[in-house]
Every structure is written in C-alpha cells, then in structure tokens.
Amino acid sequence: MAGVCCKRTAPFSVFKRTLSARSSTSASRPSTLAGGRRGVQESCLAARPQHVKTVSPPRHTACLFFSCQESMSETLRTCYVYLNQTSRSFAAVIQALDGELRHAVCIFYLVLRALDTVEDDMTISLEKKVPLLHDFHSFLYQPDWCFTESNEKDRQVLEDFPSISVEFRNLGQEYRDVISDICHRMGVGMAEFLEKKVGSMQEWDKYCHYVAGLVGVGLSRLFSASQLEDPEVGRDTELANSMGLFLQKTNIIRDYLEDQREGRAFWPEEAWSQFASRLEDFAQPQHLTSALACLNLLVTDALRHVPDVIAYLSRLRNQSVFNFCAIPQVMAIATLSACYNNPLVFQGVVKIRKGQAVTLMMEATNMQAVQSIIAQYTQEILQKVSLSDPSRDKTLCILGVIREKTLSKTALSSRAHHLSPFYLSAAMLLAALSWQYLNATQSPSSTDMQGS
C-alpha cells in the first residue's frame, strides 16, 4: 500500500478489498466477493477454467465463463484470465452480467486494479508514483504503454497493460468515456492521500469516495450506458457514492487489526482520538472498553448509508445488475452486525461463515428479500446496543430510520420483480460453485475468529 493511509480500491462489488466470504478456516487476505448471478447467457455456459499460454492461472482459481469463449479475441481472453487471477470469486459474477456490460465491467475492473497496484506498491518512490497516478488514464490510449517496475503480486496487469488497453479501446465510446473519467478522478484522489492521514470524519468520507464511491458512480454510469438500467441510475451520483462508501467503510472497520499489523491506519482520527491517545492502543486488552466505543461509533456512521443503498437497489430493473449490486450490500450489513460491539475485531478477523455467505447469495435476488435481510441484521445490531455506549442514541436513531425503509411499501412496489425458475437455477449454480471455491481456498493451519 502506497502511503500510510491509503486503503485499497473497493467498489460496489468492491474491487480489491471488498467484502469477502472468508472461509471459517482461512486467514489469508480477503478475496473480493461481488454480487451477481443470472440465467445462462445465450445458452453458452462453459464452467471450465480459461487457459491462455502467456499466463499461468492460480491453482484454485474459479474461472467461470458465462459467454462463448470462441468469439473472444486473444487479448480479451487474456483479460478474463487476469480477472480470474486478481479477483478470484468476483470473476464469476462479472461474467454473469448481461450482454456487452460484462466486457465493460471486466475492463473497468482491470484498469482500476492496475491503477490500484501502482498505488499499493511501496517500492515506487513518491516522485514517480504521483505522476503515474495523475496520468494513468492517458495510458489507456497509448497502445505500447506498460510498467515493469512493480513488485506487487498483481503486477501482471501492469506488465501486460497493452492487452487491457487494447480491449478498452475496443469498447464503445460510451463505456470508454466512463472508464477513463473515473480512472482519472480516482488517480488524482489516490495521489492526494498518499501522505495525508484520514483526520476528520469528512475526510474519511472523501477518502472512501475516491477509492470506492467513484467506483460506484462509474459502475452506475456503465449500467445506464448499457441501457440495461434507466439513465437516472447513472445520473444519481449521491446514491451511487453511498453504495461504495458503505462497502468501503465496512472493510475499514473490519480490517482494523490487519491494517495495524501492516502499518496502515484508516480509522479517522476524529473518531479514535475521542477514546485513545493512539489508534494502536485499541489492540491492547486494557483499552477494550474504549476500543468498542470507537468501533460502535464507526459502525453507526457506516449504517447511515443504508437508506441510500435501499433507495438505489429499488431502482434497478435488470436481474443480473440487481444481483451484482445487492449481494455485496447484504454481505456488508451482515459483516457490520458481526463486528458491532465485538472484541474479536481487535484480536483477529471477524468473518461471515461460508454457509451464511452462500445463503445470502441465494436469497438476495429481489428487493423484498434484500429488505428482509437488512431488517434481520439491523435487529441483531439493535439487540447488542449497550445502555452505556456513547453512540447509543445515534445508533438507535439510524436503526429506526433503516427499519422504516425496510418496511417501506414504496421500495417494494418500485421493483415488482419475481424471480423466475431460470434465474433461480443460475443462482443455485453460482452458490454451489462459490461454496466449492471457498472450500478449495481454505487454509488448514489458520484459526477461526468467527464473530457472529
């Protein structure tokens, strides 16, 4: 990670450090788990690994192609291999998107992953890194540009950037404009926070906007550009930004100990300084009461985005887009419920069980089900609110607002969609494959720190 306070890029579905269905026995870095599953695309389902001679897929990569591979160019096939290598379980759900949106989101992901790899690489000097971040969007139009000086594990997306950029240039203009614009704005934002700590709560929102909210905005514009969603979905940047902020804040809250161990700090100083003189003090048992107070304050702040999440999801019409967006959001609310007032946040990793993750993937396919899931986890949080918690009143207030939204008939009727057997079969298939993937990537030597 480049700089003291730069969290990894995490969009809706959360590129790089998004919500992951962590194995109950896995202590490895989180894989990205994004929402999305749909019926078999154009009757061309190839549930088999994609191999390209120029790269070697990881041993347990789950490479699912819901499109006809034979119709792809060699460079596009390579892009999907990189997608499978760098995003792991996110690869399957990108490929579950409908039509040409699938390729646009795949390229969007890889472009931002390449940008993020530059930001993350601590071996690149600031003198070189800042111009790279500022100019990265321009490299999309330079056919031969690549970067071979990175030491990050995902450096292949920089070393073979020409394969990505050529497929970017093959996209429609409406997609290219979105991807280039978001890449530019994100690069500028990343550069701003390279040496800048997240101080105030307002700066926390700003940082999360750069690395996650902008991805939500970009995805929303891609959804509308594909005409699978109404233009209003892409125009309403406030709701799209909230989708990204909710996921990113959840990741930051959950990853307190991991970030501390790696020398990173993302909890805003305005919050933690109310309870301790140093952020690292929260890892000490004698500071547990103060640590929980700060934790609950940040969870409460993250929850204020949930009403916007409900409003955003209620606008979606396309099933594959709805699944893509909804699943990481219900993963987030489940994760926040597990983290709230939980000492294990300061002792290890609080995880969602594999079975719980698959159940959420299976269920979050319509607005009524999503509202029911959100209501369930907000109720769990409500039951854990302490009488002595300093944020108690604010927590109860936002939980009350969320409860009203989950009971709203407007949101339910605005997306009158019934899951067909066609989509249910696809949902069951994706859940089963996800379960298989999670089992394949578990580590037998790790310790279970389940917090739910």
Report on this model:
With 452 residues, this protein is mainly alpha-helical. It has helices at 74-87, 89-94, 101-120, 126-135, 156-159, 161-170, 173-192, 201-225, 231-235, 237-254, 256-261, 269-272, 288-303, 306-313, 319-339, 354-363, 367-384, 392-406, 409-414, 421-440. α10 (237-254) packs parallel to α15 (319-339). The longest helix is centred in the middle third of the chain and has 25 residues, at 201-225.
Question: Which key terms come to mind for this protein?
Answer:
disordered C terminus; mainly alpha; 452 residues
Q: Report on the biggest sheet.
A: none
Number of helices: 20
Q: Into which percent range does the helicity of residues fall?
A: 55-70%
Task: Give the termini distance in whole angstroms.
Answer: 29 Å
SSE topology string = HHHHHHHHHHHHHHHHHHHH
Secondary-structure class = mainly alpha
Cα gyration radius (Å): 21 Å
The average pLDDT is: 79
Strand composition percent:
under 5%
List segments where confidence is low: pLDDT < 50 over at least 5 consecutive residues: 1-67, 412-422, 431-452
The best one-word shape is globular
Q: Tally of extended strands?
A: 0
